[in-house]
Every structure is written in structure tokens, then in C-alpha cells.
Amino acid sequence: MSLGNLEPLFTTEQLQHRIQELSQEILASYGGEPFICVGILKGSFIFLADLLRTLPVEVKVDFLGLSSYSGTESTGVVRLTHDLKTDISGMHVLVVEDIVDSGLTLSYLLRMLGARQPKSLKVVALLDKVARRTVDVDIDFVGFPIEDHFVVGYGLDLDEGYRGLPYIGMFPPSAE
Ligand code: 5GP
Fold first, then answer.
1. Would the CA dihedral through 100, 82, 37, 50 be positive or negative?
2. Residues 52-71 pLDDT 10s
3. Among 13, 35, 39, 49, which is most exposed with the fewest C-beta within 10 angstroms?
């Protein structure tokens, strides 16, 4: 089985460095108040695991499963595949997303979570494809803005493959 040699867009070291910086920004914004990270499955699970290990032990975690992609194309229809176990009413909630593309997924989930009356609702996204946005959404913390590439690795998949790649790579592999 191949480990998949794709051209790295962000190396493991770049990702870890940026996560340390994001963590400082996030902690400063909460000013010591407790919060819960809501990881969006499946793509954010590695980012969330690394981010969480830079945060205080009191920070809670839960997961929400959403799906809108088939292959390299969004279906445009967002489906809830797994709901939270936590009642988030009255809590500070930090949504942890892998990548924001059209913004459809994020706007759907912000509406859904907002209706549960959290004390506050913020978003951290590791990657932001700004130029692809079709729906207006506010992202509080962005790891890296990126161009319109399809990317895989570090939790991001192509038909469930590539998630374990320890860096973010560009798909398809460049022909050399
Ligand atoms: P949106 O609803 O913003 O168009 O899409 C967001 C979701 O689409 C992300 O959470 C991710 O699952 C998927 N997605 C968008 N762009 C990419 C990409 O370049 N690579 C991968 N693997 N997934 C993507």
C-alpha cells in the first residue's frame, strides 16, 4: 500500500506551528472562561486532536457529523450524520472545522447550533478557500487561507482515503 506522495501545501511542522499560534488567539479571546470544542466529523478529527493538546485540560470536546461531499465535488446538500451528546445551551462553543469552501456546511451548522442557545458560538477553521465562498459566514480564527485546490491529508479525505497523511497535500498529484 502506498503512503501517497502528494505535493505538500502545508508540512507537519507548518501545521503544528500555526496551531500553537491559533491556540494563543483562541485562549486570549475566551479570557479564561470555560468552553467546548465541537469537532465536525470526519475531516476535523486530527486538527482537533492537535489543537486540544495545546489547550487547558478543562476544555471539553464533542463531535458533530456532517457530510456534503462525494469525491472531489460538493453535493450541495448537507446531511447530519451524527449529533452532539452534550447540551450546549449556556456554554461557550468553539466549532472546529477542517476547511471552509462554499460556506454551506458552516452556515447550516451555525444555524443549527445557534438554535440550541449557546452562550457564544465561534469558529476555528484550519483552511479557508475564501474565493469559493457562495454563502456569507464569519470565521473567527483561520489557520491558512488557500487558493482553489482540492486538498487531502491531516484528516481531509478523498472518498475516505488519504486522511492519515501527516501533512496537507494537493490532489491530484502533479504529473512529472
Ligand atoms: P462547504 O460546505 O464549505 O462547501 O464545504 C465544507 C466541507 O467540504 C468541508 O468540511 C470538507 O469536508 C469538504 N471540503 C471542501 N473542500 C475540500 C477539499 O479541498 N478537500 C477535502 N478533502 N474536502 C473538502
1. negative
2. 999 999 999 999 998 775 66
3. 13
